[in-house]
Amino acid sequence: xxxxxxxxxxxxxxDSDRGxxxxxRWFERELPRGCKVWGVVRQQLLVNELIPYTSHNSSxxxxxxxxxxxxxxxxxxRAISHIKHHFIEGSDPGLCICAEGNPAMANLMVFGxxxxxxxxxxxxxxxxxxxxxxxxxxxxxxGIIGASAAVGLTSQGWSGRFIExxxxxxxxxxxxxxxxxxLGIKVISLDRDAQIPGPADIVKNDxxxxxxxxxxxxxxxVEPIGPxxxxxxxxxxxxxxxxxxxxxxxxxxxxxxxxx
Length: 260
Prior knowledge:
The chain is an alpha+beta fold. The protein folds into 2 domains: 2-161, Alpha-Beta Plaits, CATH 3.30.70; 171-232, no CATH class. Helix content is 23%, strand content 28%. The chain contains 6 helices and 14 strands. The strands form 3 sheets. A 6-stranded antiparallel beta sheet has the order 5-4-1-3-2-6. Strands 7, 8, 9, 10, 11 and 12 form a 6-stranded mixed beta sheet that branches. Strands 13-14 form a two-stranded antiparallel ribbon. Strand 10 (212-214) and strand 11 (217-226) form a beta hairpin. Helix 3 crosses helix 5 (143-156) and helix 4 crosses helix 5.
């Protein structure tokens, strides 16, 4: 089995009924036989007045585990059809796909960090993704920037928030640490004394559990609220924004190119 990283960005507009995070999660339905989604990770990019976006300027990466008989080209064909099917007029969708072991991944990792620090251009994205799949599918095609960043940051394994991992959305508001461990989610305490949550301890999460990508694993950060009782530090924002909703257009007009 190999891992293939599929980055999506800029697939929505203001007041649309779906964001990039949702489109990325839906892609599981389109996978070739034998493939499965390991996780879907939301990546936060630079928020800057020079960068137009719908709510948070985030992008999403779907991490797929595939038989070696499945190629990036096969995944790309399905991802492009997926984008075209869900395209929203006014968006500027981008798609980036890279398999683990591809030498292009090292440049994408660096590019991802840069996208979180400064405004960059489509030209820089195209250079970073050389050797991987990178394509735009509407509007200005500015989504190629966030899509590339999503792949690089996720493959690096030290940033992002899971918006899908196994049956993440079915986990109850109170769940045992041991159950989370069985699901592949590591529970780590951030309290001063660095206590270790026990398998029978309970984690309260208010019905919204979103682990972070830390060291290549989904990690749930918690703090103690009582004997054998913990609460997840990640909380849902009640600000009207949909998770994963964004518009990755980072298009400062400078010279001949649109920068981001």
